[in-house]
Fold:
Amino acid sequence: DGGITQSPKYLFRKEGQNVTLSCEQNLNHDAMYWYRQDPGQGLRLIYYSQIVNDFQKGDIAEGYSVSREKKESFPLTVTSAQKNPTAFYLCASSSAGTRTIYEQYFGPGTRLTVT
Amino acid sequence: AQSVTQLDSQVPVFEEAPVELRCNYSSSVSVYLFWYVQYPNQGLQLLLKYLSGSTLVKGINGFEAEFNKSQTSFHLRKPSVHISDTAEYFCAVSAYGGGTSYGKLTFGQGTILTVHP
Structure:
């Protein structure tokens, strides 16, 4: 079955440590996205990538980094510079185009807790 | 830039009653509109979308939404809800300005729908 996988589902880290969240898709989508979800705030875009080896900052990129070395993979690193990293992180992917909007498909999410 | 406001943070309703979840948006350009549903500790699933054409859009699970350009609204409705509809619902917009488009979505804050027996 095609879809998006995120691992692990739950992640615990100590403050000051960097942590990398995995996102893999087999939908053959060109575009991939990372969102952060906090209660009552909806989803906020962290980074997105339209094509391999290229990515752009979203609305809340500070304290995060990404890479896009393969079409299928878009890992997110939460660095120690992120002041409030505890949140639910969602990865999404979509087809990419210049003439229309394609719906985004979401992974199951990773809940990160930093203490 | 665009913004989305979901007017109700929580909507309680009894089973088999109708429900409306309200969504208003703001944008200086044309937009595409989406409703997503999220069950606890899961990702988001697309309910329906408006890209063009008929302003009444039908989606999965019996939901529908109506695009009202003059009121900049995209309210979600269901004539009779079930216990299984209990979830959080997100309205989202994506501006279409021609040329390159990365499909960026701006989400509302979410509305928690709770269906009581």
Summary: Residues 13 and 112 of chain A are 8 Å apart (CA to CA). DSSP finds no helices and eleven strands in chain A. The interface with chain B takes residues 4, 31, 35, 40-45, 48, 50, 56, 58, 90, 92, 94, 96-109, 111 of chain A (CB under 8 Å).
